[in-house]
Every structure is written in C-alpha cells, then in structure tokens.
Amino acid sequence: MILNAIEAGEGRPIVLLHGLFGQARNFGALQRRLASARRVIAFDMPNHGASPHAPGMDYPSMAAAVAESLAARGIAQADVMGHSMGGKAAMMLALTMPDLVARLMVSDIAPVTYPPRWTELMEAMRAVPAGATRAQADALLAPVEADAGVRAFILTNRRPDGSGWRIGLEEIAGSLPAIMGWTPPEAVPFGKPVLFVSGEHSRYIRPENRPAIRQAFPAARFLAVKGAGHWVHADQPEGFAAVMEGFFPP
After folding, report:
1. Per-residue DSSP letter, 12
2. Residue 170 annotated among the catalytic residues of the structure
3. Are strands 13-17 and 78-83 parallel, antiparallel or unpaired?
4. 84 given a catalytic annotation
5. Domain extent listing, the chain
6. pLDDT tens sequence across 150-195
7. Which of 18, 48, 83, 84 is catalytic?
8. In this predicted structure, what is the pLDDT of residue 1?
C-alpha cells in the first residue's frame, strides 16, 4: 500500500506518523518548521486522510505500508517520529526493518496493550447521518465525548461537504483491538538512538512500562514535555518542535 503524503523541504528525510483519527496535515506547523533544514514527509496512515482504505489495521501491516511508501519515494533510511498509534507503527518499523530507521522518536505511547477505548465514540460517529451539519454532528458526539477539543479533532475527519466520514470508519472499528494492542515482534532489539517523549499530564507512558521499552529499545531515553497532555505536539508545539530539532540534527 502506498500512503498519501505531504512533503516539504530538502535534506535528510524525517518521517511523521500521526495517531488514531489524525492525518498528515495535523503536523502542518511542525512540518514547515522542520522543513527549513530537512526533507519532511508526513504520511496519512491507512484508513486515514487521503490514504487507501484497508480491511485490517495491525502494526505489522502499518509498518509495511510505511516501508513501501518510503521505497516509492526512493528513501532507503529516515529519521522517524510517531505519535500514539503512529508511534506504535514506528516502533514496529524500527524493530522489524531496522535498516530503514536511523533515529526513532516515540510520542506518548509505549509498546504495550492498552485498555479498550473509543468503542462508544465510534458508535456515535456511525450514527451521524450523511448531510448533518458540523454542529449537528458535534451534538451527536457530545454524550460520549465531553471534551470539545477531542470532538473538534474527530470532526476534522468529516468530508468538507458534510456527506459523511472520509476515514475508513468500519475498517478502523474492526481493527480497534489490534490498534489498542501490541504483539512484540520476533526481532532483535533496536539499538539505535530512541527518545520516548511523554506529556506531563498524560499517563500513556508509565514507569511500569519501562522494562518493556528497555527490552526492545536498550538505548531509549525519556523526556516529559511540561504542560502537555497526550497530544504533545498540539498542546506544546514550540516545546515539542524544539525537542525534535535537538534529537534529529540537520
């Protein structure tokens, strides 16, 4: 599968992988900043943005799609940053195809299985009729998602004409157990530089996750961005960009 991408800049490549319900254009400001010194490729993950829809979304298949998309752009190796679901895909890529990854940055996710989430929200998304206005769609999501910011983020996945969702909603719903899960690959540890970045107010990377992280990524370092929650790059864009620039030199 060849993924849709937004590309900017020249130089050594950096790849950006978004999380569940995200899309490449979420990284717009970050990509423009990094593109002053690097070639920056932000991918739409499968079933997201303008990328193809696929019936299954597990991390081996997502990593394979990223690898195929890099090859299609003539990229033999890149620095990789992934957030949340994209972070798990980036970890899988590094562990199973280590020659493709020079340095890895994982944003607010660990290589572990998380409790089920999003099921009620996805049912509410399914219930939004085609032709509903943004306000009507927001009202239908509100009973299961109280955070207006999260609802606004979700609603960026509506088609501009209001005719429905552009993401592969059914495909994502069927893949939620795999997306929330993690099956360690049969691979040697990834020994290159790895930085795990967490939000100060997030609990996605916990102290008890560190043994699993160290086992797969023995050179891992950890950093928390003050004032940020799970969406670190959106909550603290300046701080997150500075961390990336420090970890991924020109």
Report:
1. S
2. yes
3. parallel
4. yes
5. 5-111+182-247, 119-173
6. 999 999 999 988 888 999 999 999 999 999 999 999 888 999 999 9
7. 84
8. 94
Per-residue pLDDT tens for 23-40?
Answer: 999 999 999 999 999 999
| pTM metric for this prediction | 0.95
User: What CATH homologous superfamily does 5-111+182-247 map to?
Assistant: Alpha/Beta hydrolase fold, catalytic domain (3.40.50.1820)
The first and second tokens of residue 19, run together, are 């999380």
Range from 62-66, 120-124, 125-129 that averages highest in pLDDT: 62-66
User: Which has the closest alpha carbon to 107: 26, 167, 2, 46?
Assistant: 26
**Mean predicted confidence (pLDDT) in 209-229:** 96
SS (H, E, C) 148-167: HHHHHHHHCCECCCCCCECC
| Active-site annotation holds for 123 | no
Helix (H) or strand (E) holding 176: helix 169-180
Tell me the residue type at 103.
Answer: R
Query: 170, 171, 201, 245: which one is catalytic?
Result: 170
Specify the pairing of strand 194-199 against strand 5-8: unpaired
Asked if residue 86 lies in contact with residue 48, where contact means CB atoms within 8 angstroms, the answer is no
Question: Which contacts (CB < 8 Å, 24+ apart) does range 182-185 have?
Answer: 182/59, 182/88, 182/111, 182/112, 182/113, 183/59, 184/95, 184/111, 184/212, 184/216, 185/60, 185/92, 185/95, 185/96
| DSSP code, position 24 | G
Rounded Cα gap, residues 173 and 57, in angstroms? 10
pLDDT beyond 90 at 141: yes
- Residue 194 has a pLDDT of 98
Report the residue count for the chain: 250
